[in-house]
UniProtKB/TrEMBL annotation:
InterPro entries the record matches: Methyltranfer_dom, SAM-dependent_MTases_sf
Record-linked SUPFAM superfamilies: S-adenosyl-L-methionine-dependent methyltransferases
Domain of life: Bacteria
Organism: Rhodoblastus sphagnicola
Record-annotated Methyltransferase domain positions: 89-187
Pfam family, one: Methyltransf_31
Name by which UniProt lists this protein: Methyltransferase domain-containing protein
Length: 294
């Protein structure tokens, strides 16, 4: 069939079909009609996301810590983008094993790390003690909990910890908690686990829709009237593929959860036959680093 000639829209844009309708009337929503909080929740549901209990991170805490000790330039890149001027106090939400809080300890008078995973908080306590970071305190707290007893701090950070089911209230809480500035990182497009690996394990295929990423944060902050700056931190290296067997197994467990004995056996057999096969069909290349003044 012959394609109809594009009409000329203002600004000399070419437009077809639904675009032409949208240009002339009200058939399509415009961006100010969009409720990004609602859209995020709907996106999470379509991507098959479920609220993760603290046990999810308790189970992964040791592997997470071991992997982090083996690298990485991420925290240097995070800290290099922060402005500490006029700031004495900081709260780190979803502080995990405390690596960032401890690295920040020499720059601030007080640091409060909060997380809902007891195992992560134990690791953070140990890290702070090892580093002699006596100005780091830790408290059990979820994004979804009441934060009214937590101190407002000059800076609030949330590093790789905003993967909650409901993003808008989480962002508003983080914003309220900061007297001066907020810094967070969020994923840029999701990872796709190798379908052949899931098949070999006998696990169901992953949902076809990527999880929501940083672009929701940007849009929600715009609606909150915040002037967000967006930067990107390149990830050091692909997560796994040619890692040794122990490293590969650890990464699989980190992303897919503990394997049963039968699954571990199937994984070993599959890896022996496919030594070059990666854990991810598509890995995550960047973190978005988003900052704003409150
Ligand atoms: C990927 S780790 C990041 C840890 C650390 N911020 C970092 O960048 O290394 C995510 C952390 O967020 C925490 N977390 C996830 N969901 C949470 C929630 N709903 N409330 C509090 N903490 C949460 C987890 O326990 C975990 O420690």
């Amino acid at each position: 069939m012959k394609k109809s000639a594009p009409s000329r829209a203002p600004g000399n844009l070419k437009c077809y079909g639904s675009e032409r309708r949208a240009m002339s009337g009200e058939a399509l929503p415009i961006i100010s009609d969009v409720d990004f909080g609602l859209m995020y929740r709907a996106h999470q549901a379509r991507a098959g996301a479920r609220a993760k209990p603290p046990a999810f991170w308790d189970d992964r805490a040791r592997d997470f810590d071991a992997r982090q000790r083996a690298r990485d330039s991420y925290f240097d890149a995070f800290i290099a983008r922060m402005d500490f001027s006029g700031c004495d106090s900081l709260i780190d939400v979803g502080c995990g094993n405390g690596a960032l809080a401890v690295a920040l300890a020499p720059r601030l008078k007080t640091i409060l790390g909060v997380d809902y995973s007891p195992a992560m908080l134990d690791l953070a306590r140990r890290r702070a003690a090892e580093a002699g970071a006596t100005n780091v305190t830790l408290a059990p707290r979820a994004w979804e909990d009441d934060w009214s007893d937590l101190p407002r701090c000059d800076i609030a950070v949330a590093s790789r910890s905003t993967g909650v089911m409901d993003l808008e209230p989480a962002l508003r809480k983080l914003d309220r908690q900061a007297k001066k500035r907020v810094y967070l990182t969020a994923s840029v497009s999701g990872r796709i686990v190798n379908p052949a690996l899931l098949d070999a394990l006998g696990r169901p295929p992953a949902p076809k829709i990527d999880k929501p990423d940083y672009i929701y944060v940007v849009n929600l902050l715009y609606r909150m009237g915040r002037l967000a700056k967006v930067d990107f931190i390149a990830r050091d290296r692909a997560e796994d593929s040619r890692a040794d067997w122990a490293g590969f197994q650890r990464n699989v467990a980190l992303f897919l959860g503990k394997l049963s004995e039968a699954e571990a056996e199937r994984l070993r057999a599959w890896k022996q036959h496919n030594p070059e096969a990666p854990l991810f069909e598509r890995d995550q290349a960047h973190w978005a680093f988003i900052s704003w003044a409150t």
